[in-house]
Amino acid sequence: MLEDKKFNGTLVWLIIIILAVILVYILYSAFWKTTEEVKEGLGFLFDHIKSGTHGC
Fold first, then answer.
1. Hey, CA dihedral for 19, 24, 30, 36, is it positive or negative?
2. What does pLDDT average to in each consecutive run of 10 residues of the chain (56 residues)?
3. What are phi and psi of 55, to 5 degrees?
4. What is the pTM of this model?
């Protein structure tokens, strides 16, 4: 019974670790996607400013 309880504890930790890894991966992906979008947005903004200064 003691071994069974220990195994369940290990299984719970394993599940927690797996969920944590998935969560970190999702957050990292979301963050990376937003930074890419922000970079694109800034590039567009800079292009707009450049074309604006050239009187386009």
1. negative
2. 71 94 91 81 82 63
3. 70, 35
4. 0.49
